[in-house]
Amino acid sequence: MLDGTASPEIPTAHRLYFTDELRSDPRQPQLEDSFFHSLVLRNGTFKTTWHHRLDDLNVMVEPFLPSDKPLDILDVAVSSGISTIEWLDFLERAGIECRMTAGDAVIDASLVTVGPLRGLFDRTGHLMQLEVAGRAVRTPPPRRRDRLRFAPAVLAVKAAAQVFRGGQRRRPLKLVSPSLTAYPRIDVVEDDILNDHRWPRRFDVLRAANVLNRCYFGDQVLERMLRNLRSRLASGGLLIVCRTTEEGRNDATLFRLRADRTFEELAHLNKGTEVEPLALSLPPER
Known about the structure:
Layout: H1 13-18, H2 28-38, H3 55-61, E1 71-76, H4 82-93, E2 98-104, E3 108-114, E4 117-122, E5 127-132, E6 135-138, H5 144-163, E7 170-174, E8 186-190, E9 203-209, H6 219-231, E10 233-244, E11 250-257, E12 263-269, H7 276-280
Parallel strand pairs: 1-2, 1-9, 2-8, 9-10
Antiparallel strand pairs: 3-4, 3-7, 4-5, 5-6, 10-11, 11-12
C-alpha cells in the first residue's frame, strides 16, 4: 500500500500504459491490482479490484445463460476490467458466444508531463496520481507533511494540465487494464448508471458487481439505479447483482425480467444481494 510517499511498489501510469516493463514481470497481476487500488477517484472512492474475484459467480450464472444465440452483455462499474476479461474467457471456454460492453464511471483519462513530473487526470481534471522521478505518489497524500512536501509538484502538473491539450505532453488513455486491448469483443465506455439512459432494452445479460451496495448509497438512489439498469435489459433479460464482502465472499442474486418487466429471482450465491427486496419490489416498467 502507499503511505503517502513515493513508492516503488505501485506502478506509475506511465510505466503501466506506455512501456512494456510489466509484460515480463511475474508480479504483473499484483502490481496492476496495486495501481488501481491506489487511485482515489473524484468521488472519494477507489478502483478496488483483484484477479479472480468473481470466479464462483461466473460458475453460478453460466447454467442460466441462453445458448441459442449470441449474447449482448453489459458489465457495469468494472473498475480495471480484469473481472470482465475473466468472465469473457470463462464464457468462451463454456462455448457461449457473446459480445461485451464494459462500463465504469471513470474511464477516459490522460497523462500530463511537465519536466520530471507526470500527473494522471480524469476527464474533469481531477488528479489521481502524481509521478515524481519515476515513482508513484498517492494524491492527495494522507499525511500532512507529505501534502506540504509534494504541494509544488501537484501545483505544477495541475497548471500544465490547463495548458497542454495534446501531443506527447498530454497523452490520452483508458483507465482500465491494458490487457483489454487484446479483447476486441469488449467495448469499453464511460457510464454513469444513475443518469446515463443509453441502450434501452438492448442487453441480454447485465452484471452489476460491487456497486449496488447500501454502504455506498441509500435506498432511493439504489432504486433509481435498478430502474435504469432494468431499462437496458431486453425482454427476458438477466440481471446479476453481487457484493464482495470484506472477507472475500461473494453474495449475489440472479434475476430474470418477466414479460411485465418486473424481476423474479432465479438463483442465489451465498447470502444473495442485499438489494434483492428493492429489485423484486420494483413496479412494472412503463
